[in-house]
Design brief:
- InterPro entries: AB_hydrolase_fold, Dienelactn_hydro, Dienelactone_hydrolase-like.
- Keywords: Hydrolase.
- This is Carboxymethylenebutenolidase.
- One of its GO terms (molecular function) is carboxymethylenebutenolidase activity.
- It comes from Sphingobium scionense.
- There is one protein chain.
- This protein has six helices and eight strands, in the order E-E-E-H-E-H-H-E-H-E-E-H-E-H.
- The protein has 233 residues and is an alpha/beta fold.
- The protein has an eight-stranded mixed beta sheet with strand order 1-2-4-3-5-6-7-8, sandwiched between helices.
- The protein has one domain: Alpha/Beta hydrolase fold, catalytic domain (Rossmann fold), CATH 3.40.50.
- It is globular, with a radius of gyration of 16 Å.
- 42% of the residues are buried.
- Helix 3 crosses helix 4.
- The two termini are 23 Å apart.
Length: 233
């Protein structure tokens, strides 16, 4: 079952919508799915639906609600790609993390019994997932092709829960020197696991569209599923 629910901000000064997919039986845990720059579009909703089929309560908050509520864009349409890129400087990432924290609290309220909450994000959401690992009390975190994580390494000391990053080596938004800084900066953090995907570009695990590379997307998603199965048990 899927629907939208309102979630109040931590400050109580507003609310935003979140797409929710529920499993048929009591959820074994919750997973917060963080959008790309394209909003909570069909691809993100499908990811939530897949987590629900696997037995999780899945929630995708509309993080662009202060800019353009319910925006849905397609990465394969050049005009919409440019529109999506224009949202990046307008999006307050610190505020976005607080909205994710509010979503984590909402998920815990919705869960039946003491269950855990994981967070997975893509693109911009991959970066925000790393920030969420540093700043919230979620239980496990996964970031796919997060951009600019090298600039966040000063916060990594605050990561206390299992965290996984998927890194395509030919990412047009994350050059090789940035990837090297990520590996070097995180190599001694026992909570963080990095997976490289040789020759792959940004967006390879998109749920749909031209960016998806099926075999490798399935590999990364299996790793994520196994990771959450262990970390959220």
């Amino acid at each position: 079952m899927a629907d939208y629910i309102p979630i109040k901000t931590l400050e109580g000064d507003g609310q935003f919508d979140a797409y929710v997919a529920k499993p048929d039986s009591p959820a074994k845990a919750a997973i917060i799915v963080i959008q790309e720059i394209f909003g909570v579009n069909e691809g993100i909703r499908r990811k939530c639906d897949s987590w629900a089929k696997a037995g999780y309560l899945a929630i995708a908050p509309d993080l662009f609600w202060r800019i353009d509520p319910h925006i849905e864009l397609d990465a394969d349409i050049p005009e919409q790609m440019q529109q999506a890129l224009a949202y990046i400087p307008r999006f307050n990432q610190d505020q976005g993390v607080r909205d994710i924290e509010a979503t984590i609290r909402a998920a815990r309220t919705m869960l039946e019994g003491p269950a855990k909450v994981g967070v997975v994000g893509y693109c911009l959401g991959g970066r925000v997932a790393f920030m969420t690992a540093c700043r919230t009390d979620g239980d496990a975190f996964v970031g796919y092709y997060g951009v600019g994580i090298d600039g966040l390494l000063g916060e990594q000391h605050a990561i206390g829960k299992p965290t996984m990053l998927h890194i395509p080596t030919n990412d047009g938004f994350v050059p090789a020197d940035v990837q090297a800084k990520m590996h070097d900066g995180l190599k001694d953090n026992r909570h963080v696991t990095l997976h490289d995907y040789e020759g792959l570009d940004h967006g390879f695990a998109a749920e749909m569209g031209d960016r998806r590379v099926e075999e490798v997307a399935q590999l990364a998603d299996r790793r994520t599923a196994d990771f959450f199965a262990q970390a959220l048990a």
